[in-house]
Write a structure and sequence with these properties.
The protein is built from 20 helices and 37 strands. With about 625 residues, the chain is α+β, with helices and mostly antiparallel strands. The longest helix is centred in the C-terminal third of the chain and has 12 residues.
């Protein structure tokens, strides 16, 4: 059993349909993918020769274990065959070996049915197959003679799409074929054998892979960058392309923003539906057997459940199953039991990630550091200052939390988005807000520094970024929502944009207390007036002052600190408070004190200065927050 040893949280596990360009090797084509996804753990399934272009299925993260499985899929090609000339490599990169009269269109059409079904095929000498531990192509280039044994292949489809007769300027004939075949089929050899049966010779001028199993080239990254494969286009490209360009080392260039977006937008997270599409029966691992599975203990049918709604007929011939945890993350792949046994055998196991609340900056978002698997799954969000995280905010966030098919988070700010002359301080620090979000069950928060540069971003651009970079598919807001430059983007604008972009938008009504709307301003006013019970009724928790970073100094038997943070303070006076303490150092001499995490004290507020009656300096150094 193989276990994933990579502990990187953001390592994406999924599938990327990728359109390779002609002139690049399959391996070198992976460079842009590795840089775009931020991982080297990628692998392609089925090599394409450097002169060829088309679909590569790239597996990322834990799915690299499935390379052999996906490589076995049926593949479809468009192949442009040049009849009348053969090269040593059977492609345009080689040297001409011989020339013979080309067959007619009718002869080719008559021959193609003979090259369908089961066939014995001898691979080309210039191939990646290994002989005595070395590539056959390397042995041939070194002057050695290579003998490769014929292999069984299967051609499902072999159709003539277009034909160009010989001309005075070109004695060769050209046939554009569409071929569907099994793993291990060499289209170069197929062209050679078709020509040989017609007493002619041939080589490939162009080759494009258009489909691998259920994946089609039209759905691949960078497909828009290639031209349609026609006889005329291919011959023109051949004139423009020097032979030495094929497979030559290209100058390394940094990956552009457009390339990163193209890769990320075509990445497919490995879900139960994608597993079924890949001929893997999707199974759900029961919660109580997660530890059994992660430790490689024997599995039985009773530990696994089929996914509701899956097409059982589509997976009837599956020999392997993709196992998922309850949160739909991949747990691993197992071989299905035989009729005589109810036991499964392990392919590989992915350790379940421990759920943790995560925080991102706006810079993280625009630099594509948001987890790709979350982007693919989709997110439910709310945007706001969330100062004090009161009951009105919670009503909005509860709408977000209800979207349990998505990754759920919020967007907030390090400082108020609006400059209000009456603003006297924040109700909660950023760390307090993050703790509340985590306790509520959100998965992440995007915390934005409301800088002058950020304030100039238009609302439409801001929402598009959340959609493109974070996969936002649902947003919940209150009627007073606004964002963008000078707050010009209002709730009506948001609703209209969401309709056009296919994003679900929920307007959450205000929450009232004693007939009036609960708001941060109202709570701030209550705190300043020392009406702590009223503030408690609007937030659901007592007001707490975050003391992180305060330096306490002793004076006349008490300890004081300057309240330099942006948090609001009550009116000057004395208050009975609860002080929450951090853990004491292990070598603390005050053993009894070390066990205390809270204590009651008297707090005096005067002119931006806080004083506490504390037993000792040891306690003062451990003050985490003051609860009024």
């Amino acid at each position: 059993m193989k276990k994933n040893k990579d502990a990187s949280f953001d390592l994406p596990s999924g599938v990327l349909p990728y359109c390779k360009k002609s002139g690049l090797t399959s391996f070198s084509s992976l460079s842009v993918i590795k840089k775009s996804l931020g991982t080297s753990k990628v692998g392609h399934t089925g090599t394409l020769d450097s002169f060829a272009d088309g679909l590569l299925i790239v597996l990322c993260g834990n799915l690299t274990h499935l390379v052999e499985h996906v490589t076995s899929f049926t593949k479809t090609y468009l192949a442009l065959v040049c009849f009348g000339k053969e090269t040593d490599t059977l492609d345009p990169t080689g040297q001409t070996l011989k020339a013979l009269p080309p067959p007619s269109k009718g002869n080719v059409e008559e021959a193609l049915p003979k090259f369908t079904g089961p066939l014995l095929q001898t691979p080309p000498a210039y191939s990646a197959l290994h002989v005595d531990g070395k590539r056959a192509s390397d042995l041939v280039r070194s002057g050695q003679e290579v003998h490769l044994e014929p292999r069984q292949i299967f051609v499902y489809k072999n159709t003539l799409i277009d034909f160009l007769e010989p001309s005075e300027s070109d004695p060769c004939a050209y046939a554009l074929l569409e071929i569907s075949c099994s793993k291990g089929t060499y289209i170069r050899s197929l062209a050679r054998d078709i020509a040989s049966s017609l007493k002619s010779c041939a080589h490939l001028v162009a080759l494009r892979r258009t489909q691998v199993g259920p994946f089609k080239i039209e759905e691949s990254a960078f497909y828009k960058d290639i031209k349609p494969l026609t006889i005329q286009n291919a011959l023109q490209d051949l004139k423009n392309m020097q032979v030495q360009d094929f497979g030559a080392k290209k100058e390394k260039k940094p990956v552009s923003e457009e390339e990163i977006k193209e890769v990320r937008s075509h990445f497919l997270a490995f879900t139960p539906s994608l597993a079924q599409k890949c001929s893997l029966s999707p199974l759900l691992l029961k919660n109580e057997f997660e530890r059994y599975f992660m430790n490689g203990r024997p599995l039985k049918k009773s530990m696994l459940l089929p996914f509701a709604g899956n097409d059982s007929s589509a997976q009837g011939n599956a020999e392997e199953a993709a196992v998922f945890y309850a949160d739909n993350s991949l747990a691993g792949v197992v071989s299905l039991p035989s009729k005589k046994s109810d036991k499964y055998s392990y392919g590989f196991v992915v350790q379940k990630k421990k759920k943790e609340f995560r925080t991102f900056s706006w810079q993280d978002i625009i630099l594509h550091k948001f987890p790709l698997e979350w982007l693919c799954k989709g997110t439910a969000l709310s945007v706001g200052s969330f100062d004090g995280v009161h009951k009105g905010h919670k009503a909005i966030l509860e709408r977000v939390l209800a979207k349990d098919d998505f990754v759920r988070g919020c967007v907030t700010f390090t400082s108020p988005a609006k400059t209000d002359p009456s603003f006297s301080g924040e109700l909660s620090s950023v760390e307090q807000k993050k703790q509340i979000f985590s306790d509520m069950g959100l998965d992440f928060a995007i915390v934005i520094d409301f800088s002058p540069e950020f304030s100039k971003i238009e609302g439409t651009s801001f929402i598009h970024t959340l959609s493109d970079e974070c996969g936002m598919r649902f947003i919940a807001e209150g009627q007073d929502f606004c964002c963008g430059y000078k707050g010009a983007f209002k709730m009506n604008d948001l609703a209209s944009l969401c309709r056009s972009e296919g994003i679900e938008c929920a307007l959450v009504p205000d929450v009232l207390l004693e007939g009036s709307r609960i708001s941060s301003s109202r709570i701030r006013d209550a705190v300043q007036k020392a009406e702590f019970d009223l503030a408690l009724r609007m937030t659901g928790r007592p007001f707490a002052y975050d003391c992180t970073g305060l330096e306490w100094k002793e004076e006349n038997g008490s300890f004081w600190a300057s309240a330099f943070s942006r948090q609001v303070l009550p009116v000057d006076g004395k208050y009975g408070v609860t002080v929450e303490l951090t853990a004491a150092a292990e070598d603390s001499v005050e053993l009894n004190a070390a066990a205390l995490t809270t204590l009651h004290a008297e707090c005096a507020v005067a002119k931006g200065r806080i004083s506490l009656s504390m037993p000792s300096a040891n306690f003062a150094s451990r003050v985490k927050k003051i609860i009024f």
